[in-house]
């Protein structure tokens, strides 16, 4: 159509804080997308680990349509049935006793960090306010969460940033011991660093964090915004490790594409969020809650979760085969269907150069920093789409190597 928006409209009308690819997808079904010109793409990006069931999954569409014809939004002056069902579902399937609903991962982490400080204030006094995070971590884009995140590039120019925040080395327990003390209120960690390069935590490292938190009466917060809701092969990655946090944050795959987030905690901890201490206009929105409930119930089944681990092996086999031929990757790592391939020294920092070549070949992928090619596809992506998508990736890699 002559009045269809173009990529140049982004540059004209949108804030310049993104640099999207040149194509504009207009339709999706399963693990495939089509752009304005009708070109088809296989989706290994998954909306950055959001589209856990692909595009327009019938279970999610039905939940959305049913709720859309019933009730959309009330505000938190009232509660609603979908929010209560979702909260019950999350509590019954996890360690948690209570759920706080919100609209995004950043908002969920903001709530978790505020809750940790409020809990410490209530139980031990205002002096117990130190938060320990990790270099290369990512916890959101609010001023508080970018300050807690361990990538200074996201907080530069926005100062002064909140105080009382310290950063240790991921997978280095000794570096945490140097920082932790009686003034520590919380340690926040991703079970697998996402934006930091798809780096899984060592089991002993997470176990050590749990011990340190118990020793110093601090809360252990697991940021499972990217690893949660089946992405690891379990409903949440803490289940893979057998390490239970005090607070857990969830978003992305939680809504399968519909904006929704949640912060989960035990009764004792959540009690510090008394009436009026925190809130979210859209938290517990009926539409979002209905879709999220359908997503969780569909994903948290033995068939889907076992399929995630099987697909992980298939992705790894293909990536290793590509690497044997082209030698572009140094390591292939990850958990479940969050997979990273770090670039070899000869191609250091050039992961982003693969993305437009992949688009040309009909494949959508991601990066995790300048040196890691990232894949976060649908948890139920058909094996045929994996084979074909990897063939397209190999073509893109061949062009990348030839052009280099």
Automatic annotation (TrEMBL):
Pathway stated in the Swiss-Prot or TrEMBL entry: Amino-acid biosynthesis; L-arginine biosynthesis; N(2)-acetyl-L-ornithine from L-glutamate: step 4/4
GO CC annotation, single: cytoplasm
Keywords from the named record: Amino-acid biosynthesis, Aminotransferase, Arginine biosynthesis, Cytoplasm, Pyridoxal phosphate, Transferase
Reactions this protein catalyses: N(2)-acetyl-L-ornithine + 2-oxoglutarate = N-acetyl-L-glutamate 5-semialdehyde + L-glutamate
BP GO annotations: L-arginine biosynthetic process
Cofactor: pyridoxal 5'-phosphate
Ligand binding (pyridoxal 5'-phosphate): 138, 223-226, 281
UniProt subcellular location: Cytoplasm
Top enzyme category: transferase
EC number: 2.6.1.11
Highest taxon, organism lineage: Bacteria
Annotated N(2)-acetyl-L-ornithine binding sites: 141, 280
CDD domains: OAT_like (cd00610)
Pfam families found in the cross-reference section: Aminotran_3
Residues carrying N6-(pyridoxal phosphate)lysine: 252
Cofactor note (record): Binds 1 pyridoxal phosphate per subunit.
GO molecular function terms noted in the UniProt entry: identical protein binding; N2-acetyl-L-ornithine:2-oxoglutarate 5-aminotransferase activity; pyridoxal phosphate binding
Homology family: Belongs to the class-III pyridoxal-phosphate-dependent aminotransferase family. ArgD subfamily.
HAMAP family the record matches: ArgD_aminotrans_3 (MF_01107)
Miscellaneous comment: May also have succinyldiaminopimelate aminotransferase activity, thus carrying out the corresponding step in lysine biosynthesis.
Subunit composition and interactions: Homodimer.
Protein name: Acetylornithine aminotransferase
